[in-house]
Amino acid sequence: MKTGLLHGIVANSKTRVRCVFCGVYIPKANKCIEEHTNGMKHKENIDLMAENGMSYVNDELYCKPCNVYLTGEESVASHVEEDQHANWIAAIDDLIEGEFINIDSYLASENEDVFCEVCDAKVTCTLQNIEAHVNDILHRSNVAEKLKPLNGIFPVENDDEVWCKVCDQYIENTAQRILEHIDDDTLHVEWFMDIEDLTEGQEVSIQDYLKNEHEKNAFCNKCQMELLCNVQSITDHVNSEAHLNQFS
Ligand SMILES: [Zn+2]
Ligand SMILES: [Zn+2]
Ligand SMILES: [Zn+2]
Ligand SMILES: [Zn+2]
Ligand SMILES: [Zn+2]
What we know:
- By secondary structure, the protein is of the alpha+beta class.
- Helix content is 42%, strand content 21%.
- The chain has helices at 30-37, 40-51, 76-80, 83-96, 104-107, 127-135, 137-147, 175-184, 186-199, 207-211, 231-238, 241-244; strands at residues 9-11, 16-19, 24-27, 54-57, 60-63, 68-69, 101-102, 113-116, 121-124, 153-155, 161-164, 169-172, 204-205, 217-220, 225-228.
- β8 and β9 form a beta hairpin.
- α9 runs parallel beside α11.
- The chain is elongated.
- It binds zinc ion (5 copies).
- Residues 63, 65-66, 79, 85 line the site of one zinc ion.
- One zinc ion binds at residues 164, 166-167, 169, 181, 185, 188.
């Protein structure tokens, strides 16, 4: 009989068992238990656990972010909707957005720490710690370094400035100014939004344009041809007969 560790089924009475994940009672018969553990709902709850830092420890559900064991009345689905838990997840998502911090393996209970990819460092997973880390000057400059080649930003001879190819503009060479440019400069942000809209699903790549200072072209993988990398030229291309009729 499939009971115990992986399946969240615990004995309840002579005639029924309880699925701790789903918070439901099931008749104590192999067939019923198997049907339940093979069911959609049950599998969804197992996925939900892995996305929420919950694990099954000694026949009990444990939530790592909240540091609590769930009571018999709760299920995975009911716990993730509780304020304390939902607020924590929302706050973490907010903090790590765009920061290259990977929290997936922490939530899947494979790791105790989160991992900062740009600093190549582990960070203890508390809101306070992560907030301190993302605001740390070293982290900010590592994020800036990571974003430069994705944003067409290049060093110039005098080290005091960098050059944004997209905007043809010089920027003070500090993490703060560079990140401000990437996140808040209207011209820069709109160019990327326009290009993303235009190229979405079109197999037009601008990676080489952004990475290589002297590259002027984007590349259409569908037509196997280069085209000038600007909004007008890409607009014309993705709407052209040749492109539209090309088999990919
Ligand atoms: Zn279940
Ligand atoms: Zn929780
Ligand atoms: Zn970092
Ligand atoms: Zn720019
Ligand atoms: Zn094309």
